[in-house]
């Protein structure tokens, strides 16, 4: 594939590891290594991770260096390097007033608690 600057050099790719945060409710969800172009948006990676892990994209958030990754972010825009790690956290709704346990737990393929 030709690069954006007009020459025929291949676009640089990275390997990025996506893993569930250990202290989240996503324990047991697998870690996956992805190969991605530096200028590709990360939405495809996020959707692929969720599909392979049996999660709903809307039920989790992806973080890199404490920055929430958006659909339009790219590895280049976030200054990612080869073998960097993206963390996955469940979007837990913490109800400080009622403290219902049902607000806190989220299981794979279960978005009914959000």
Strand content: 15-25%
Q: Outline the low-pLDDT stretches.
A: 93-114
The strand line-up of the biggest sheet is: 2-1-5-3-4
The whole-angstrom Rg is 16 Å
- Mean of residue pLDDT? 77
Termini distance? 41 Å
The coarse silhouette is: globular
Give the topology string: H per helix, E per strand: EEHEEE
| Category by helix and strand content | mainly beta
Task: Please tally the β strands and state the result.
Answer: 5
Number of helices: 1
Largest sheet: 5 strands, mixed
Fraction of residues in H or I helices = under 10%
Topology of helices and strands:
Blueprint: E1 13-20, E2 32-37, H1 43-53, E3 60-64, E4 67-68, E5 84-90
Parallel strand pairs: 1-5
Antiparallel strand pairs: 1-2, 3-4, 3-5
Give an account of the 3D structure.
The protein is mainly beta and 114 residues long. Helix content is 10%, strand content 25%. It is built from one helix and five strands, in the order ββαβββ. The protein has a five-stranded mixed beta sheet, with helices on one face. A hairpin with a 2-residue loop joins β3 (60-64) and β4. The longest helix is centred in the middle third of the chain and has 11 residues, at 43-53. It is globular. It starts with 12 loop residues before the first strand and ends in a 24-residue tail after the last strand. It comes from Macrosiphum euphorbiae.
């Amino acid at each position: 594939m030709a690069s954006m600057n007009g020459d025929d050099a291949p676009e640089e790719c990275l390997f990025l590891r996506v893993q569930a945060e250990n202290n989240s409710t996503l324990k047991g969800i697998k870690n996956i290594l992805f190969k991605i172009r530096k200028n590709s948006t990360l939405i495809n990676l996020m959707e692929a991770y969720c599909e392979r892990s049996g999660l709903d994209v809307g039920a989790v958030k992806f973080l890199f260096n404490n920055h929430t990754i958006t659909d339009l972010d790219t590895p280049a825009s976030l200054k990612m390097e080869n073998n960097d790690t993206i963390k996955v956290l469940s979007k837990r709704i913490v109800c400080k007033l009622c403290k219902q346990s049902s607000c806190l737990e989220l299981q794979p393929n279960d978005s009914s608690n959000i």
